[in-house]
Structures are given as C-alpha cells and as structure tokens.
Amino acid sequence: MQNKDLEGMIARVASRNINMYGKDFLLTWEKSLEELEAVFDTAMILRRLRQENISCRIWDSGIAVSNFRDNSTRTRFSFASAADLLGLYVQDLDEGKSQVAHGETVRETATMISFLAEAIGIRDDMYLGEGDRYQREVGQALDEAVAAQVLPSRPTVINLQSDIDHPTQSMADFLHLAEYFGGLDKLKGKKIAMSWAYSPSYGKPLSVPQGIIGLASRFGMDIRLAYPEGYNLIPEIEALSARQAEASGGRFTITHSMQEAFKDADIVYPKSWAPYEVMQRRVPLLHAGDTAGLKALEQECLANNAKFKDWECTEDMMKLTRGGRALYMHCLPADITGVSCKAGEVAASVFERYRNDTYREAGWKPYIIAAMILLGKRDAPARTLQALFERGRSREL
Amino acid sequence: MQNKDLEGMIARVASRNINMYGKDFLLTWEKSLEELEAVFDTAMILRRLRQENISCRIWDSGIAVSNFRDNSTRTRFSFASAADLLGLYVQDLDEGKSQVAHGETVRETATMISFLAEAIGIRDDMYLGEGDRYQREVGQALDEAVAAQVLPSRPTVINLQSDIDHPTQSMADFLHLAEYFGGLDKLKGKKIAMSWAYSPSYGKPLSVPQGIIGLASRFGMDIRLAYPEGYNLIPEIEALSARQAEASGGRFTITHSMQEAFKDADIVYPKSWAPYEVMQRRVPLLHAGDTAGLKALEQECLANNAKFKDWECTEDMMKLTRGGRALYMHCLPADITGVSCKAGEVAASVFERYRNDTYREAGWKPYIIAAMILLGKRDAPARTLQALFERGRSREL
Amino acid sequence: MQNKDLEGMIARVASRNINMYGKDFLLTWEKSLEELEAVFDTAMILRRLRQENISCRIWDSGIAVSNFRDNSTRTRFSFASAADLLGLYVQDLDEGKSQVAHGETVRETATMISFLAEAIGIRDDMYLGEGDRYQREVGQALDEAVAAQVLPSRPTVINLQSDIDHPTQSMADFLHLAEYFGGLDKLKGKKIAMSWAYSPSYGKPLSVPQGIIGLASRFGMDIRLAYPEGYNLIPEIEALSARQAEASGGRFTITHSMQEAFKDADIVYPKSWAPYEVMQRRVPLLHAGDTAGLKALEQECLANNAKFKDWECTEDMMKLTRGGRALYMHCLPADITGVSCKAGEVAASVFERYRNDTYREAGWKPYIIAAMILLGKRDAPARTLQALFERGRSREL
Q1: Contacts of residue C89 in chain A, CB cutoff 8 Å?
Q2: C-alpha distances in Å from residue A5, one per residue of A1, A12, C5
Q3: Which residues in chain B have Cβ-Cβ distances shorter than 8 Å to C86?
Q4: CATH 3.40.50.1370 in chain A, residues?
Q5: What is the second-level CATH architecture of the domain B170-362?
Q6: pTM for the full model?
Q7: What does the pLDDT look like over A131-153, one tens digit per residue?
Q8: Closest Cα partner for B175 from B375, B360, B384?
Q9: I need a surface site. Which of A337, C162, C166, C287 has the fewest CB within 10 A?
Q10: For the structural domain made of B3-165+365-391, what CATH number should be given?
Q11: Residue from C61, C85, C95, C118 to probe the interface with A (highest A Cβ count within 10 Å)
C-alpha cells in the first residue's frame, strides 16, 4: 500500500467539519454532506487497514448490543463483523419479535444493557411509525442516563433498518457506486431508477427505496422513482427527496412507468415494496393482533400486486438503459424469476450478470457500520484512525 | 486518578485472609466477611481501572459459559459484560427452559462445556430445591473432572440466581449502599425494611429478599422483614439471618405491617414474592407438568395477593421513613403503579424520584460478577490486579 | 516444558508435505496421511502452548461462523472454544432446523456471511445425501466469491458432522488413541471393534461409525465392523474402508456378531445407529414433511431394534476383549443401561470405569477443530506456530 495514500485519506477525515461524536446514526438526511462523506472515508480506511493486515481493534473490551426486532441474516452478520473488527463483543437483546415496548420499559432496558456498551444496533422495520420512534426513545434514554451519571459513556445507536430509513444499506450502496463510477463526485447528474418491481411476497418495508431516494438526492443525481399508481412511499420522504434533489442540483421525478424510469438510466434498483397505504392499514391490525384482518389485507394486496407482474427487470428493460449497460443494484435477497420464485423482481440472466456486483455492494456494509460506530464514539476520529495505522498491530499473525 | 488511592485498594485486597481460589460463589453466607469485602474491593478496583481507561483483560482467550434456565435480560447482560471485561467469550448453554437434569447428564455436560472454560454462570430459580442443588452438582462434577485430570483447570461457578440466594444482585445492592452512605462500615445500625409489596404478577422467586436479609445481617444492620401473614420466606433462611444479625451486632425482626417496617427506616426495599408455601406446592406440579394444577394455584395465589393491595410503597409510606428520605431500592424491573401496571409495588412518583438510584444500583452488577470470577480463578488476586494496573494497557484507543 | 520438545513438534509440522491451505476439511479420506498427521501435530502443539500459558491467538479480529442444522451442545462448545482460542468471534447462522436450501440461496448466504470470516463450521447430518453436498456447495460458493474478488480471503469450511463423516470426532478419538497407546504408530495391528449397539432412541446418524472405520483403515488397524443383519452403513464407505485397510496393511472385516467383534479387541466402540436402508427411506419422507410416514418408519425401526437388545457392551462382553481390558470409546452421550435409559448401549459399570477416558477423548475436539482451521488458513502453518511460540504472549495474566 501507499502509506501516503492512506494518510491522505485520514487527513481528509481530519479536515471535515463534523459533529457526530455522542450522536446516533438514524437517518442520512439528518447528517450533513461532510458527515456522510466522513462515514464513506472512514469505511474505506478501515477496509484498507484490514487489507494491509493492520488491526482495527479500538477496544480491548466492550459490548455491542444487537437488537433485531425482525429477522435478519446479512445485517446481523454485518453488525457482528463490524463490532468484532473494532474489538467489541456482540450481545443480542432478544425481546421477542412482536413486542412493542414504550416508556419506562424502553428507558430502563436501554440503560440496563449499556453499562459497558459502546454501540447499540437496532433493526425495527415492522410497524410504520414505530421503528424510528423506538430508536429515538432509546437514544433519549441514553442521553438521560449519561446526564444523570448513571452511564460512564454514551453508546451510539445505529439504525440497522427502521420504518423510515435503512442507512447502513443505502450508505453501502453508495460506496459501491463511488467505487464503480470512480468517486462520489462522479454521481452528479447520473440517472438512477429506483423502481418498484413485482414480487410474490408481501409486506416488504419501505425503508430501502426511501433510503435510496433520500441519499441519492444529496449528490445531485437524476432520480426517477417509479411505481404503479397507489404504491407510493411515505409522502414526507418523497417530498424531502424532491427538496434535497433541487438543493443539490439534481432532479427528482415520480413516474408510473418502469420503462420511463429505465430509459437512459445509469443505475437501476428494481425492488418490491408494499404501498404506504397498506403499511398504514397494517399497523392497527398488528397492534390488535388481528390475524384474520392481516390475512385479508395480505390477500387483497397480493391480488393487487399480481396486476403488475410486468414490473420486472428483464433483458428488454435493461436494453432501455444507457447503452443497455446500467448498473443493476439490489439490497438482496432478490426475487429472481425462475430461481427463487416463478415470477419476480428480476430476470435470472440479468441478475446473474450483476450477481458479483450485488455481492460487492453488500460487502461494504460491515465497514459502513464500523465507521458509524467509530464516528459516534470518537471525538477526534482521524486521530484514532492515525493511531490504528501507527500502532500497526497485525490483524493476523 | 490518584494512583496511590488505587494502589491502596489493591493493597487492601492483598491483606485479606481469603480462601476463594478454585471455589464457587453460590451463597453469600458461605463466605467470610473478608471474602465478601474482597469482592467489593475488587469490583471497585475493576470499575476504577476501566474508568481510567486501563484494560481489565486478564485472558487473551477463554470461554465463559452462561446457563440461563430462566428468562433474563439484565443479568444476562451483566454476565456478558463482566466476562468480556476480563477477556472471556460468552457461550450460551441452552438446555431448554423446563428441563431438570440430574446425575450423569449434569456431570457429563458440565465437563464437556469446560475444556477451555474459566467461568460458568448459572441462573436457575424456578424450582424450589433445585437451583442451588443443580449449581452444586455442576461444581462437584468440575471438582471430579479436575481431580481426574480431565480438565486443565477449574472453572468457577457463579450463582446468577438460585432458589435460595441471588448474590450478584445483593452484592451489587450493597456496593450501592456503601457508595450511598460512604462506606460499608456506615451500614452498622442502619434500619433496612425488606418488605413484601403487592404485584399483579405471580410466582416471583424468593431469592432477592433472602439474599438481602442474608447479607444485611452480616453488617450489623437493623433488619425488618415485613410481609402479610403466610408470606414467609424459606424458614431456614429467616433463622439464619436472625443468627447472623445477632452475631454481627445487628437486629432481625419480622413484622406483618409494612408501616411498622418503614417507620424510621434508612433504606426500604419493597418487592413482591410468592409465599414459600406456594412455592413448595408448585414444585410437584411443575415436575408433573400439571398445567391445570399450576393455573389453579396461580388463581388462588393471585386472589390472596389481591387482599394486600395496600402493601404499596406510596408517598405516605415514604413519609414514615427517617426524615421521609429513606433510600428506595429495587432489583428491577419494579411493578410501578399506573406505569407498568394498574396497581403495583411502588407509586410512580416515588419510583421516579429514585429511578436513577436504582439504575446506579444495577450498574454495579457487572463489576461484582467480574470480581467473583477473578477471585475464584486467581490464587493471588491482588497480584493480578496490580499486574493489570502496571501493564496499563488502554481499554480504548 | 521442554522447549526443545515443542520446537521438535513444530519442526515435524514444517517437514510435512501437505496441501491444506485454502481447502476445507470435510472427509478424512480426502486427506493424505501426512495431512492427517499435521492435524494431530498441530492440535497437540496448540494444547501444549495453552498449557504453557502461551496465547494461541492468531487473529486480533475475525469471525467464525457456526451453522448447526441439527442440535448440538458439545460440538457447539468445541467449535466456539477452538475459534476463541485462535482469536475469532463466533457468530451463529441460524437458518431454522429443517430447511434445505439449494442453489442461489446457498451461494448468496455463503458469501454474505463471509466478508470478514475466517472459518465456517457446519453440522448437517439429518438428511442422507444432503449434509456433505451442502458443505461442498458452500465451499464452491466461497471459491467463486474469492475468484471474483468478492471476498478478500477464503474462509475454511470445517465439517462438524455430515451424513457421511464426522472428522472432528474421529480425529479427536484417534488423538486419544495415540495418547493412550503411546503414539499413532502403535495403532498398527491393533484390533478395534466398531460395533452397533442397542438404543431405545432412533435415527442416530451413520457418520460416527463411518468416520471411525474410514480413519482406522488408514493406520493399519484390524477393524471389525459389527452389526445385526440389515444394519449396514453406506455401502461405499464400507468398501472404501476395506480398500484403505488393505492399502495400509490392516484388515477390515464385517461380522454380525458383537461377540466375534469383541474377541481379543484392543479397542471397542459400541454405538447405535439407524440402518442405511432406513436412513434412505427417511429422506423422501422428510422432504415431503410426511410426519405420519416418519412416525410409522420410526415405529417399525424401533420394533426391529428391540430384537437386538442383547447388543450391549456388558461386563461379559468386555471379558471377551484382550485381557478383558480393551479401551472403551464413545462419542457421547452414551445410552447407559439403568442410568440414561432402561436398556442401552453400555452397562453402567463398564461406562463408569471408562467415563474419564471418554471425557479425555472428547477433550481433544476443540484442539482438533482449531488445528483444522489453522491448517486451512495458513500457507506456512509451522511458521505461524513458531511465531505464536516466540511471541510467548500470556494467555492469562
């Protein structure tokens, strides 16, 4: 490695005007552009250090809490890998899947798990209006506990997917884009089609498409959000993305034609989700434990989905993109026609051509999470990175 | 930090006449006063070292086994945090909740999990007559395996709550008291009301109140154990506490009036439990898997509890205490009237006033557990603590 | 310790002609004799280093994935202990017990969990024709991901029990034999009775007896495989063992008499299993989720088993062995007559006499697993061992 190269990257982190210490990472649009770039830089530095067999272990002991209120394999592994990379031991907080806790229970539990904790990763995307709210409640409890000198230090909360945003996913996606196109600055003006796609399953969260439009609109991209009528995202997030796109010199267009979105696109992200309106109707049913009502809603929604089976990322669709060679993206697992289902989001031949790209995309997630932890826990993150570099301890003997 | 201060604490550990190496920590009343004080000292030293950013990692590799035969969040996190603080990786032994194993199965499993283990934490408080017995059976299996040179060293067993005692809780409680009142020696003569309180739930174990009276009676305190008639604890533990109180220059009184117990109290610990007689009747029903019988017993018990809804730690009750300002304690989670239940152990305003105190109380538990592990595994614990101090390795970079 | 002794052991590893780097450990018969001996040597060296309080931590961070598609306690602890010994954090991949994944799902999951992983331990022994196939599919996915530069390095896959072989068990068993008889070279010509034995349970996998005959036949042993007619193992493995026995100067005989097998045996390994034919019939029933069919097959099989209750390792049986003092072996837990069941594989007095031997046998497993990981991940394993030795970092302070 060119040491100079790495030192340059660390210097860039040092030069950034950021205010992330003691804060949580919940939504990308709460962070300044410099802060987002600090995450990208730090993630790249950590990956480079590891590649150079330099240990990124900041902590000699300490706990990272993982709280998955929904199933997960890849995010669970990403969080565990990130925590371990920094020297933290992961302890799961298993509250049972459907439990919705409020008030004293949240406050108390947040404190009880945090006496020796440095980070808390939370995935809670099942209930519209709950996931983000819950993460904030945990963060507030931690603030109070630190203020009352109950906790020796403030663990940083990382949103591992909420009802609103999925920042570890979208940030990994964009680091992949930066690598693919040769830098974040190359994204300006690039056309990205964030499109709904057909899936035989139901109730997929809105956080991935929201995360993508919420982040793409920060970098001056030309965003086309495409979905069948009635399949909109949370209206406030669509409006926010439009405002952000304008501010960053980009564009934000909603279309109800997948073809239109794909036309001349540089990047396509075809992915299923449940309409906002359906997600809203689910909440009282979930709270009430109305299984029959949920079943009926699912049937209604699946029947409606079936009208849009042609929303599939086929070879013909790909031909519409710039030079027929747009970069295909997905958060995985994708519903692949003829592979994981009869009819799905993407044709098998398209997916196969970009398979390794989607894997590389996912490979950034552990480093993004590690960077978020480091930046939430270090007042002078560049100094810490420099110290890791200078210590030069071997990661493997 | 004053290094001298810390070195003084370590010197105090060195001066103690203790015999804990190779032993388990199951019941506080099996330990000498010096041994209990060694645990307190060591816990304080470990917390101080961590505060000074000095790594407490004694092991570079090694396993800590956690065996929770009952649900737990806070004790699970305390054990994991303690093990990780010392450098141990926690591996759960999940035997299924209701299984009661004996004989060869216990002996064999205890050995199989211990080849590279340093500590085994066991929580088993469901069955009267089982939890403590099981922990001893594990300990005996380990003794045999070490004697037969099957195991390279003896993991230390830590009681994380049995049917009899809950020493990691009571010891954390008392370190909190020591901090609150300015030293363990200040506890002599202090009035502590360990009182039953109403709860809408049922079957809470006896180990917390037993742990408190079993430990308070070692320090010359004036103990008032209060409960409605018929709600007594294990008779042998009440008798033991009375004997210990006398020996230590304290007092031990049983009363059936919460008011009487609270009168002029310096400390109050209002907490629900199921009567000993009910706990005894549960055992054969649990063994027989007699769900209907258990349900009937629960109904009977809840109906009886409901007669004592006025056993609540209200503001009026608190006014009876010394200067109206007794320290309120609880092992958490408390049943808070109007917050976690309609009517419970404590009024919301009382709990809120002491909330951070109860959190601080809980915050000692990881250090108490770490101290117990260290003292069970180190022949010359003060030398180990001194070595940690002198090594001075940063816990965080 | 004699440093010379340890350095001699390391030199022996250095001198071996092996090709294990970047490879998986799935079946002992895929490995050369030198490679098997390298595993034995490395396991012994790691145990010695730990005994000398020298840390075996090769990694400062890194993940070991455990994937148990069947219940396990001792193998789970062995894998966790081994991973931790080398410095890896264990993250469980919990896919649900009965799931049989193929194709894209396996390929994708294998990659997603491996970005920062060094080792993947898989136990999958439920379905004949599935476990080994699945492990190979994971390995192939990893090869592809490394070739495509999706993964920075190749995690090594360790077979923690498949439908075919159980190499971590058989290798631990043979290290025990080597220690017991004073060296692997002493095994030549030794008579080992790998015998079916009666058990009241059903459906025990074939991998243990297959692993034993597949390994014993490499060392010139005189193998007698004994079972009631119809209780044969996978025919290809029996044939393979016969060929290997001949090649190594040993013998391989099948008999339908436990007595005949025990006659003059130096070692006896009485252990129940389900007949190959029954295991074959289970597969389509399991795939079809045919619970009634499985129940009927179980009843049929148990009824058949019951005809062979006299296949028990009694004191009388033991008297038939060489000097009446053959070494009794078992992978544990054994079905002990009058202890863990009414009638089982072994008489209580026989088991009790050899109990500590079976424990010692099991005690090698963590070191065998650690050795397999190290050899799969290190191009110059002897150099790594020497580096551990020279670094001389204390495992415990």
Answers
A1: 80, 84, 89-90
A2: 8, 11, 46
A3: 61
A4: 3-165+365-391, 169-362
A5: 3-Layer(aba) Sandwich (3.40)
A6: 0.97
A7: 999 999 999 999 999 999 999 99
A8: B360
A9: C287
A10: 3.40.50.1370
A11: C61
